[in-house]
Please model this.
Amino acid sequence: MGRSVKVAVIGAGISGLLAARELKREGHQVVVFERYNRIGGIWVYDPRVESDLLSLDPNREVVLGSAYLSLRTNLPRPVMSFTDYPFRMTKGTDSYFPGHVEVLEFIQNFAKDHGLVDLIRFEKDVIRVERVDESRNDQWVVEWRTRVNESEWEKDSEVFDAVVICNGHHTTPRVAFFPGFEKFPGRQVHSHNYRVPDPYKNEVVVMIGAGASTYDLCREVSKVAKEVHLSSRAPDAQVSRLNDYPNIWQHLKIVDVSEDGTITFEEGSSVQADTIVHCTGYKYDFPFLKTNGIVTVDENRVGPLYKHVFPPKLAPYISFVGLPQRAMLFYTFELEARWIAGALSGKFPLPSEEDMLADTEAYYRKMEEHGVGKQHTHSIFPLQYDHHDWLAEEIGVPPPPEQLKKIFGHLLTLVKMQRDNVRDHIDREMKLQDEADHLHSWYTAPQ
Model:
């Protein structure tokens, strides 16, 4: 066992709980700060929505959750397992893609079984993380507030040796701005504030986006809406009616919105809409982190960060878990957490600040050479396997099983066929086919 330090973890979602477990295992003193009154992060369903349905008003009452009532994960159980804590099917379940209630239960059991709940300070909204003295990196003040009543907050603070930031990135929405945005007379909503389809009954709805949630919401809303029109900037978007859905049409991007609610798309067609739903993703946001410009968020790039985890100038005392996207996320977050815990104890020495910065800048240059914009910095596909394997080698553990990579790769192939209901298709067709048999015990043995 190496040195032990006092560490604050910001957030009690999956990445925060993994960080807490690995830090605890490594012998560190751990305190987890959680804004909500329970663990689970994005998997906590909250039926409330914000008063500003686009979440643009800085004075709004923020609702942390973005889960909708019918949400099912788009990753199968093996990909959502931890290396020593599999996400198996429970009695009464028959889907490889569990709903949010079952995922939350899995997370809660993980926290309970590893003694993490007692480390968490609930309903503590962290408002400042800052160095005590800018001449040293190993003393950080964490300031938080606790609600006293409807209009009053009580503040407190404590000094820590290190801070691990795990506050997620599904709370601060990104909104699509287009010509005529402010003219639209109807309702505009971000998917962050979508819960059930009922408000869209008999409406003409335009949805903007091309991700998994966009197609989820399109299908669900189409059951009650008069028409659903999907607008996408994706270069391979085909202008057509979606197969098996008589009232869903695919369009190109919006080019104009007029005062009577008419929306014109790039291909020339138009519809008069009642509601626009922005399924346009989220921003990385760390309003509490004060580093005097050392760590910034520029066009959704959090940086500079060595391997998406450590700011070279502040490592290892400031770190992030959970930034990568389009990867085997649970596995990646677990390796990141283990790396951080070992770096703080001295088990895994980091390169020099200069070498970490040089590596990070080389990564950014490579992205630019391949035409990848800053906003996709943390979307590590198609290099996710290189990233997983590098982390595994760095901390001395085996890389993910090849069968698991095959399952994930097979899933990505199907996701490209977004017009099909990928999850239902896989559940119906042999549960990810032969590849799943190699990991059958991970998710078929009832608990």
About this structure: The two ends are 33 Å apart (CA to CA). The chain has ten helices and 20 strands. The chain has a mean pLDDT of 89.
